[in-house]
Amino acid sequence: MKFSVMILAGVLWVTTGCTRQPADHFFSSLRAHCGESYTGKTVFPESPDHPFAGKELVMEIADCSDSEVRIPFRVGADTSRTWILRKTDAGLELKPDHRHPAGTPDDLTMSGGSATSP
User: Whole-angstrom Cα distance, residue 4 to residue 52?
Assistant: First the structure.
């Protein structure tokens, strides 16, 4: 999970350029995909022991509002992850909501980060 969040956070940081206007553009572009889902697979790390290895990865851009997009992220049959992207006065904020099977929050829940204007 940490690896996925770090990759998405890095993409957000590079895409937004850490300024408000690109953050608004990125957020609007993401919202345009609301209701769509995208399937992928792991390329790195290559270890067959990695928890994502050999599993279908699916993200759905869902629950879109003017200030928040929720992106459920499925790893095989595991549906415990949702990425929450929020537009803030400073830029963008990414927080992962990761739940155990009983619904209780994982230690990593809401650990994400922010891309802010300099």
Answer: 10
What secondary structure, in 3-state letters, does 40-75 show? Answer: ECCCCCCCCCCCCCCCCEEEECEEECCCEEEEEEEE
Q: Is 91 helix (H, G, I), strand (E, B) or coil?
A: strand
Question: Measured in whole angstroms, how far is the alpha carbon of residue 112 from the centre of its chain?
Answer: 9
pLDDT in tens, 4-39: 544 555 555 444 444 457 788 889 999 999 999 999
pTM over 0.85: no
Widest distance between CA atoms in the chain: 42
Q: What is the per-residue pLDDT across 76-116, written as a single tens digit (0 to 9) for each? A: 999 999 999 999 888 899 999 999 988 898 888 888 888 87
Instruction: Specify whether the backbone of 4 is left (phi greater than 0), alpha (psi in -120 to 50) or beta.
Output: alpha
Query: Are the C-beta atoms of 96 and 85 separated by less than 8 Å?
Result: no
